[in-house]
Design goal:
Blueprint: H1 5-27, H2 33-36, H3 38-44, E1 51-52, E2 56-57, H4 65-76, H5 83-88, H6 94-105, H7 121-131, H8 143-146, H9 165-176, H10 187-194, H11 197-208
Antiparallel strand pairs: 1-2
Helix pairs in contact: 4-6, 7-11, 9-10, 9-11
This protein binds heme C (HEC) (2 copies).
């Protein structure tokens, strides 16, 4: 059997194409997601570990994928205000944001060292809010949703362990004055509105002295807690 002229031509064309494709691959760096996310690295760190420069850039590595996705959508829809973040995601599709969220969720979480402090009424108040809430003021325990070890709950509730004190205060303030909103029902907005400034600094002080167990810092499996209030967007989609 002989090979037809047209088949020979297409084989030749194929060989030519694979040659130029190889040449092309040598001169253009591969277009990987990691490479496209170098813009994010300048603020959030090379592996999403977070940075403190003239501003605080939160860690995004190892946070639940649905939580990260919800935040990226919140920035795009301006439910959450941050000029730089609003701009970064302004034209990105849900599919692409989901891919970015999954990429960072898969990177290992890193935590700051816990500070040491002697027991104080402020720390005791922080611990009480975390573990029991304040039933008299209808404040649920933070652990009820963020987990006993405060490592969060998949797919869309973040860890509280390792959060920067100023960042916590800023986020609570943002919820109180509605510059941060989550999908309805926005349980965190309701909770933040019940907290007074002293509660927020107590919570932040308590969190700063908790040493994360780096062996089991992963968010709890989906569905493993029965939440005391309804929160929107918890399917993280
Ligand atoms: C110029 C600095 C800068 C760049 C670049 C940047 N971010 Fe951010 N990002 C911030 C700041 C500041 C915040 C905190 C905003 C706030 O206080 O609400 C933030 C918050 C976030 C959050 C929410 C974190 C949380 O725990 O709720 C996510 C997710 C995020 N950024 C992802 C990204 C991604 C993905 C990129 C790249 C496409 C990116 N950022 C690029 C500065 C930046
Ligand atoms: C009913 C469940 C629930 C309870 C109780 C709860 N949270 Fe949350 N929390 C959430 C959800 C859901 C989110 C994610 C909201 C979003 O998508 O923006 C969140 C997010 C947060 C964040 C933002 C973290 C970040 O990385 O930006 C902070 C801070 C926080 N919670 C603090 C607290 C504190 C302090 C308490 C206790 C006083 C508490 N939460 C109790 C459900 C809860």
């Amino acid at each position: 059997m002989t090979i037809g002229a047209s088949a020979a031509r297409s084989l030749l064309a194929l060989a030519f194409f694979s040659c130029t494709a190889q040449l092309h691959a040598q001169v253009t760096p591969p277009d990987t997601l990691e490479q496209r996310l170098t813009a994010c690295a300048s603020c959030h760190g090379k592996r999403g570990e977070g940075l403190r420069a003239n501003e605080y850039y939160p860690r995004i590595a190892g946070k639940p994928a649905g939580y990260l996705f919800n935040q990226l959508v919140n920035f795009r829809e301006r439910r959450r205000q941050s000029p730089v973040m609003n701009h970064m995601v302004a034209y990105l599709s849900n599919d692409y944001l989901r891919e970015i969220a999954q990429y960072y969720a898969n990177l290992p979480a890193t935590f700051p060292d816990a500070v040491t402090a002697t027991p104080s009424p402020v720390l005791a108040r922080g611990e009480a809010l975390m573990t029991q809430g304040d039933p008299g003021r209808k404040i649920p325990a933070c652990v009820a949703c963020h987990g006993k070890a405060l490592t969060g709950l998949n797919p869309a509730i973040p860890a509280l362990i390792g959060l920067d004190a100023q960042y916590i205060a800023a986020q609570m303030g943002a919820w109180r004055n509605k510059t941060r909103r989550a999908q309805a029902p926005d349980c965190m907005a309701d909770i933040a509105s019940l907290l007074v400034p002293g509660d927020i600094s107590a919570v932040a002080a308590y969190l700063a002295v908790q040493a994360p167990n780096t062996q089991s810092a992963a968010p709890l499996p989906a569905g493993s807690l029965k939440l005391p209030m309804e929160c929107g967007g918890l399917d993280g989609r």
